[in-house]
Design goal:
This protein is mainly α and 132 residues long. It has one domain. It has 4 helices and no strands. Helix 1 packs antiparallel against helix 2, helix 2 runs antiparallel to helix 3 and helix 2 packs across helix 4.
Length: 132
């Protein structure tokens, strides 16, 4: 995990922490715990894939001229959102997966982005013994 970009690592760790918190809360509140847990798992997988895709898109775009980079980033953003919509529709067709839990977990990506500086400062810098 040390080879992963530190910001991406912080985002994924933040989403994992968020996922654990909403999993614990959900297990207390929901009736169908298996469906909820499966939704959280699917949502976390979506977060990991979306975060890595964004990172790779931005890395490649940095090597392009501004017009090409703008078009490339827009095209990949649309691809990411269409893929996410397809996954959500697919999950709606599976009664074993709670779509609400998937959506709750996908919001974890946003929460993780907001908390990334604190996660870096207080958690990952201590785990990996690095300063940024």
């Amino acid at each position: 995990m040390k080879r992963l970009d530190p910001t991406v690592r912080d985002l994924l760790l933040g989403a994992l922490i968020y996922g654990i918190i909403v999993e614990i809360i959900g297990l207390i509140l929901v009736e169908n715990r298996f469906s909820y847990s499966l939704g959280i798992l699917v949502g976390y997988i979506c977060v990991v894939l979306m975060t890595c895709h964004m990172y790779l898109t931005l890395e490649k775009a940095l090597d392009m001229d501004s017009d090409s980079a703008s078009k490339y980033v827009l095209r990949n953003s649309i691809l990411r959102y269409v893929s996410l919509a397809a996954i959500l529709v697919g999950m709606m067709l599976l009664p074993q997966v709670s779509v609400i839990a998937v959506i709750i977990m996908i919001f974890g990506m946003k929460i993780s982005a907001v908390l990334q500086p604190q996660i870096s400062k207080y958690i990952t810098s201590k785990i990996f013994k690095e300063r940024r």
